[in-house]
Specification:
Elements (H helix, E strand, L loop, with lengths): L3 E5 L12 H11 L4 E5 L9 H4 L7 E4 L2 E4 L1 H11 L8 H31 L6 H23 L12 H10 L6 H4 L2 H11 L2 H12 L7 H17 L1
Parallel strand pairs: 1-2
Antiparallel strand pairs: 1-3, 3-4
The structure holds glutathione.
Protein name: Glutathione S-transferase family protein
Family: Belongs to the GST superfamily.
Organism: Sphingomonas floccifaciens
Length: 234
């Protein structure tokens, strides 16, 4: 059965290629499952009917038959459970892949998102600049530990790409090109291997092609304020 996901028809430039429907699109591309997309204008995510699909008023969601799911990690796990290609066939391999999925979302992503909050979403707040050194310190610790564990393996569990790699690479690439990631060539090469996969390229192209909308006036005002402040602090 062909699933339907939700995505935004517009996001600010810094978010293009990072919106979390990309993780779901990537998983679907890896397993060769075609899908449909319902596009939401900015603001629509907080109103019915989308609130009914996603209690926090966010994307992505995933609908197939009478199942509606939210949370990109849960969606990727469901795709991996219902298709071949993202979980190893043996139960222990599947358990290890899930372990890495949680590590990506629950251990590595929190400080990475703190960085995004301090440098993008709340860049104009007085507390953001003072927080940045401690955020970078925590990211650096996680990246160092992850780099050590990955070592010279191709993927986190060895030779087989899993849903754990998909989510870990999706998280790491939020900081692609930033010195805190560039300090770890092992991780840079790992992200490059993941994002060179044809399934990732198709998913990214599809997300980018979906940005055909326009921002609402309140968002234009916010972006202009951010730009003006960046000009002042540059
Ligand atoms: N933990 C959620 C996070 C979803 C999320 O943060 N979605 C963002 C886009 S990447 C969103 O919809 N933001 C708009 C909003 O919160 O209004 C997931 O992984 O699905």
């Amino acid at each position: 059965m062909r699933p339907t996901i939700t995505a935004f028809d517009w996001v600010p430039d810094f978010a293009k290629g990072q919106v979390r429907d990309l993780r779901v699109r990537w998983a679907l591309e890896e397993v060769g499952q075609a899908y449909d997309v319902v596009y939401l204008a900015q603001g629509e995510q907080k109103a019915p009917p989308h609130r009914g699909r996603q209690p926090f008023g966010q994307v992505p969601t995933y609908q197939v038959g009478d199942l509606t799911l939210f949370e990109s990690g849960a969606i990727v796990q469901h795709i991996a459970d219902t298709h071949d290609g993202l979980f190893p066939p043996d139960p222990n391999g599947r358990a290890r892949a899930i372990e890495w999925m949680y590590a990506a979302l629950n251990t590595v992503e929190p400080p990475v998102m703190d960085h995004a909050i301090a440098t993008l979403f709340e860049a104009d707040k007085p507390w953001s600049k003072p927080r940045l050194p401690s955020i970078l310190h925590r990211i650096d610790a996680r990246f160092g530990e992850l780099s050590d564990r990955l070592g010279d393996k191709t993927w986190l569990d060895g030779d087989v790409f899993t849903a754990g790699d998909l989510l870990m690479i999706a998280v790491l690439r939020i900081l692609e090109g930033e010195p805190v990631l560039d300090a770890y060539p092992t991780l840079v090469a790992y992200v490059a291997r993941g994002t060179a996969r044809p399934a990732f390229r198709r998913a990214l192209d599809a997300q980018m092609a979906g940005f055909t909308g326009t921002p609402p006036p309140a968002v234009i005002a916010w972006l202009e304020k951010q730009k003006a402040q960046q000009g002042e602090t540059a």
